[in-house]
Design goal:
Length: 264
């Protein structure tokens, strides 16, 4: 019996780039997360071109932040220069730190723009599964926004949002469970400058019970460098500022589910 021909083998110098583009796009790149896809784009000019496709980054943003599927967010992201969802991911994924940015030149076009509205895209996860997503719009031209402290409520104080987080009656066990498994993404989008930033620490910095009430507070916070501008020259700018997000779980649903109220 004649033996069948041996399958084609790739030599060490051929690499992944010898594969057909359709195979790379369909069977490899679609399985990567955002960080891995960005790293793959740096390995060769061919992969850089394949990894820059908008549909790949749109899928990654959609799966990472369900709130990015909101039509308001999609419309803004589509106008981002340099790659739409790819640029949005690069803005929104990193965790902020208290580092001063280099000063910009006076002729920077962005300095002439006035931000009249910000959009919050918020996603809450339990054990990496989304349990709450919401998008909110807020204007920035009134005293409510311009004078601290700024507070954005995603859920009315009288309402609560049912989730799939199981209720645990023992406080210590509940605290530990939320501290390890309740993660948050709060992306603020500047609609005028095509910029976004994630103001959440992702994991809680504290889980505690209020001393005045029995409400449980899960706190997320980052400390960032404040801008160098002064407000009308009256108040000196602080070196750093804290962005705090508070998640308040309270009560149980009909099926023993925890009820969440999200506030910033």
């Amino acid at each position: 019996m004649a033996s069948s021909p041996c399958p084609t083998k790739f030599t060490s110098h051929q690499g992944i780039t010898t594969l057909l583009p359709d195979i790379i796009e369909t069977h490899i790149l679609t399985r990567l997360d955002g960080q891995t896809l960005a790293a793959a784009a740096c390995t060769s000019s061919r992969l850089h071109s394949l990894c820059a496709q908008e549909k790949l980054w749109q899928h990654i943003c959609s799966s990472t932040w369900p709130s990015s599927n909101d039509p308001r967010v999609r419309t803004l992201v589509s106008s981002y220069p340099g790659g739409g969802h790819r640029s949005f991911f690069s803005h929104s994924f990193p965790v902020l730190g208290c580092q001063k940015e280099p000063s910009k030149h006076i002729h920077d076009d962005d300095s002439l723009l006035v931000t009249e509205q910000i959009i919050s895209a918020v996603d809450l996860y339990y054990r990496n599964d989304p349990v709450f997503s919401r998008v909110a719009e807020n204007e920035t031209v009134t005293g409510w926004f311009q004078f601290p402290p700024l507070s954005i409520d995603l859920v009315d104080a009288k309402d609560s949002v049912p989730t799939k987080i199981p209720f645990v009656s023992e406080a210590n066990i509940l605290f530990e469970e939320l501290e390890k498994n309740l993660t948050l993404s709060w992306i603020i989008i500047d609609s005028s400058r095509n910029r976004a930033v994630n103001l959440s620490s992702r994991l809680p910095v504290s889980v505690r019970q209020g001393w005045l009430t029995s409400d449980l507070h899960v706190k997320y916070a980052v400390v960032i460098a404040a801008g160098g501008n002064q407000r009308w020259g009256l108040f000196p700018a602080r070196e750093c500022m804290e962005c705090e997000v508070m998640v308040t779980p309270g009560g149980r649903g009909k099926k023993g589910e925890e009820m969440l109220c999200v506030k910033l």
